[in-house]
Design brief:
Layout (H helix, E strand, L loop, with lengths): L6 E8 L5 H16 L4 E7 L7 E8 L2 H7 L1
Antiparallel strand pairs: 1-3, 2-3
Length: 71
């Protein structure tokens, strides 16, 4: 019996006020690049709400070795 274990990297960025457009542009550039790596399973972005300026990015890979290669 095989157990598939995926890994998720959680990245939190706290932005300075007014930096949201630049950060969104950066995300649009790097997300397709990450998808080219072996074992990449997807990215989810949790955007700030209310007065918060923190973005949380979840990057998923099929195993730890592939995650480390991406990092």
């Amino acid at each position: 019996m095989s157990h598939q274990q995926h890994v998720t990297l959680v990245i939190t960025h706290h932005l300075a006020p007014g930096q949201e457009p630049a950060y969104e542009a950066w995300l649009k550039r790097i997300m397709p690049d990450a998808a080219q790596f072996d074992g990449h399973l997807g990215v989810n972005v949790i955007r700030p709400s209310g007065d918060q300026l923190a973005y949380t990015v979840l990057v998923r890979f099929d195993n730890l070795d592939n995650l480390y290669r991406w990092i």
